[in-house]
Amino acid sequence: MDTITHGIVGALIAKSFFSERNGRVATFAATVGAMFPDVDVVQEIVSRDPLAIVKYHRAITHSFVALPFFAALLAWLTRVGFAFARKRWDLREWEAPPLGILFIIYAIAIASHIFLDAMTSFGTRIRYPLSQERVAWDLLFIIDFSFTAIVLLPQVVAWIYSDRDKFFARALSLWVLFTLCAFGAWKIAAAVGFPFHLWIVIVVCAIITALFFLPAFRNVGFRITTAHWCQTGCAVMLSYLFACSVAHHAALLRTRNFAAANHIPIDRIAALPLPPSLLDWGGVIRTTDGVYQSRFDLRDSAAPVFAFSADSPPNEFVARALMLPEVQLYWSFARFPVIRTSGEPGRHYVDFNEHRFITRNRRGPAPFSYRVVFNDAGEPIEEGWQADGMDVRRLVKIAPTHTGNVR
């Protein structure tokens, strides 16, 4: 899940249960804590290893094993930092809660990040360093506009109705902003291969209009506290996650029924969430010789149609590629790779095309596709990501040459 949505969730939790008693610092701590695990992208950025996203991202900072340490460290830093700031700039309204309360806030916020990342199809290593296993419950898409709206809108509505004199200006300006964002999300989704109907945008705009203006009727909205608005948002968020789990079960059942009806040997199987709603899913099955893949809407009662992507026949170059440490690391990350081989004079290609992220009208290899290039002697001369899954010419070299025999 994207870092911004994590921060919004942290703020929602704080405003629901901590901010009334512990002030603004509680909201600050929960927001920072919910975003903190993604600090590991710094190591990914500074590293020259193209596989850094596999090695470092969603590891120690996303682990329940290390959570108490990070929560304690952040609580202490917050306590010390705001104590200094209050003395230096006389910020009386920014008094930090007791250390124990801060620890609880940070622990809950970090845990929310770990749980939400585990609900995506990308997965996360929740027991690192005790285990390298990636947990992926496949309930949420990596960027889920519906989920983001659910956790953001209660906070926005609470702010709109926190000041009667500024209500109309706030409601109108934010209505324009959110309406533009809804149409922007529609355009972005179509551009990246996940289009949805325009009528969905119209329904979303109607919901936003109702939330921003209807509570003003008989001044109902002005009598509801920020905590109550946000607690309602938490309840809706949990209801949405429960609905996602029910939909996931139904989608996985359809995928299993297809495998059973066609007597397909299953190596791995999953139902993967797709935007824009919890009704859109992809079924993926990895067999011994390829991947079956489908995209379907749960509202359609017809059995989903699966397409099969076959592995190329095994050869010595595939065997050599699978022995490379980088490929073994990639294989631990990939869930539904298809192995393809090709060649030209003096160069032999082994491609591992990940089929976890299903898009329409896809050109070229899928996202997170990996390529190894061999010479005629069977030595790997180049390997790395097929950048953006689109342009092989931007292939990143991990090691320009490998000398000697390959096992």
Tell me the layout of helices and strands.
Elements: H1 3-17, H2 19-35, H3 41-46, H4 52-55, H5 67-89, H6 99-118, H7 145-160, H8 167-191, H9 198-213, H10 226-261, E1 268-273, E2 280-286, E3 290-297, E4 307-310, H11 316-323, H12 325-333, E5 337-344, E6 347-354, E7 370-374, E8 380-385
Antiparallel strand pairs: 1-2, 2-3, 3-4, 5-6, 6-7, 7-8
Helix pairs in contact: 1-2, 1-6, 1-7, 1-10, 2-6, 5-6, 7-8, 7-10, 8-9
Number of domains: 2
Side-by-side strand order of the widest sheet:
1-2-3-4
Helix content: 40-55%
- Principal-axis shape equals globular
Per DSSP E runs of 2 or more residues, the count of β-strands stands at 8
Report the order of strands and helices. Answer: HHHHHHHHHHEEEEHHEEEE
Explained architecture:
The protein contains twelve helices and eight strands. It is α+β, with helices and mostly antiparallel strands. The protein has a four-stranded antiparallel sheet with strand order 1-2-3-4, covered by helices on one side. It has a four-stranded antiparallel sheet with strand order 5-6-7-8, covered by helices on one side. Strand 1 (268-273) and strand 2 (280-286) form a beta hairpin. The model is unreliable at 389-394 and 400-407 (pLDDT under 50).
Short description:
The protein has twelve helices and eight strands. A hairpin with a 2-residue loop joins β5 and β6.
Characteristics of this structure?
407 residues, alpha+beta, 2 domains, 4-stranded antiparallel beta sheet, 12 helices, 48% helix, disordered C terminus
